[in-house]
Write a structure and sequence with these properties.
The protein is an alpha/beta fold and about 375 residues long. The chain contains twelve helices and 16 strands. The chain is about 45% helix and about 15% strand. Helix 1 packs across helix 2. Strand 9, helix 6 and strand 10 form a beta-alpha-beta unit. The chain is globular and about 65 Å long. The chain starts with 6 loop residues before the first strand and ends with a helix. The strands form four sheets. Strands 1-2-3-4-9-10-11-16 form an eight-stranded parallel β-barrel, surrounded by six helices. A four-stranded mixed beta sheet has the order 12-15-14-13, with helices on both faces.
Length: about 375
């Protein structure tokens, strides 16, 4: 991917569920996963995220299934360090990269909720989890690139004669490598991002927030002689007119509130996630920010996921995304409140429009040079 390209990432899950769709039936619907993955491939997405949750289906196996029913689309596996030894994870990821034909990336999430982590037996505190991730990623890279067994003794892991016969199909700088996506906005997270992230992912913050955070990550990466790409996540709400788009947004908020009452949820807080706190800080400034940013759902659910939206016509939302591109963001993770249907809709107009605008912007820069 060149510096002028733009990447689109969607998200697939084991069943139809969102803030406005209550989960029904088994946690895994194979037909839905197949249709969902193929819809993203046909819509022109570059990659899809498979999320991790402490009570949900295994993301690694979901990626394996989705890869088996698609041909071109790439995957971003959400993975929480700490529950699988990094030596085993390295072999799993290398194997999955080989079987998928080099279509894997891994998004490392150290964990922003003590409650979530403890469901799987992890009692480390927030900052300790990032320290563990630092060592975890170091071991992963050693396993992928070592040509002979090695020993490791660190604060969290100790191995003797660690080695993997299988290496990733993909490479970076000529060495086996699975692309590293990384999230975390805390003081403990940024140094780890600077050392390891190929792509640093932030939630759908305001332009001012995104400008500040990407500058911090760039500065940290520069300490290691590295550069980092950036990803921002949004929930685009589209309609043929601006008025209809905002009416749809209002109905999504109303249904979100109704379902939360039915399910017995309260708003709650952001727990230990700095990213969630940043979303709520944006929401405190208003439900409508910048050109198109809508924070009402994020505020309603306590900022507990990528829940801010860009609202408008496809042309208006594409224009708003270009503002983030101008900040250096080259990856957009977009998913809808109507998950499969919105993925198809994004492929009709939004994705092609953004790619066209980015190409025009790049051509103008080249001409000016």
């Amino acid at each position: 991917m060149s510096q002028n390209d733009v990447e689109f990432i969607g998200m697939i899950q084991g069943q139809k569920v969102s803030e406005i769709h209550a989960a029904k039936g088994p946690a895994i619907d194979r037909d839905y996963v197949r249709a969902f993955a193929q819809a993203h491939e046909n819509a022109g997405f570059d990659r899809v995220l498979v999320p991790h949750h402490s009570t949900g289906p295994d993301a690694t196996l979901t990626v394996a299934h989705a890869a088996s029913v698609t041909e071109r689309i790439h995957f971003m596996l959400a993975h929480r360090p700490g529950f699988v030894a990094p030596t085993l994870a390295a072999r799993q990821f290398a194997s999955l990269d080989q079987f998928s034909g080099g279509r894997l990336a891994v998004h490392y999430i150290s964990g922003g909720s003590d409650e979530e982590q403890r469901r799987d037996g992890d009692w480390l505190g927030h900052d300790q989890r990032y320290a563990r991730t630092d060592e975890y990623l170091d071991v992963l890279h050693k396993v992928w690139t070592a040509d002979k067994p090695f020993d490791h003794e660190g604060a969290h892991y100790r191995f003797q004669n660690a080695f993997s016969e299988v290496k990733p199909l993909q490479t970076r700088n000529g060495r086996p490598h699975v692309p590293v996506y990384f999230g975390g906005a805390s003081e403990a997270a940024i140094p780890v991002a600077g050392k390891y992230a190929d792509v640093y992912a932030l939630w759908g913050e305001s332009l001012d927030q995104a400008r500040e955070l990407t500058a911090r990550v760039r500065a940290e990466a520069a300490k290691h002689g590295r550069s980092v790409r950036f990803s921002v996540s949004f929930r685009p709400i589209l309609a043929q007119t601006e008025e209809a788009a905002w009416a749809r947004a209002d109905s999504i908020l109303a249904e979100t509130r109704r379902l939360r009452v039915v399910q017995g949820y309260n708003r709650g807080g952001p727990q230990q996630s700095e990213g969630a706190k940043r979303l709520l800080a944006a929401a405190e400034k208003g439900t409508r920010l910048d050109k198109r940013l809508w924070t009402a759902v994020a505020q309603e659910i306590g900022g507990r996921s990528n829940s801010t939206a860009l609202v408008g016509t496809p042309e208006q939302v594409a224009d708003a995304l270009l503002d983030y591109y101008d900040l250096g963001v080259t990856t957009f993770l977009i998913r809808g409140f109507d998950p499969l249907e919105d993925a198809v809709d994004y492929g009709r107009e939004l994705i092609p429009r953004v790619r066209e605008l980015v190409a025009q912007r790049a051509a103008s820069i080249r001409k000016a040079a």
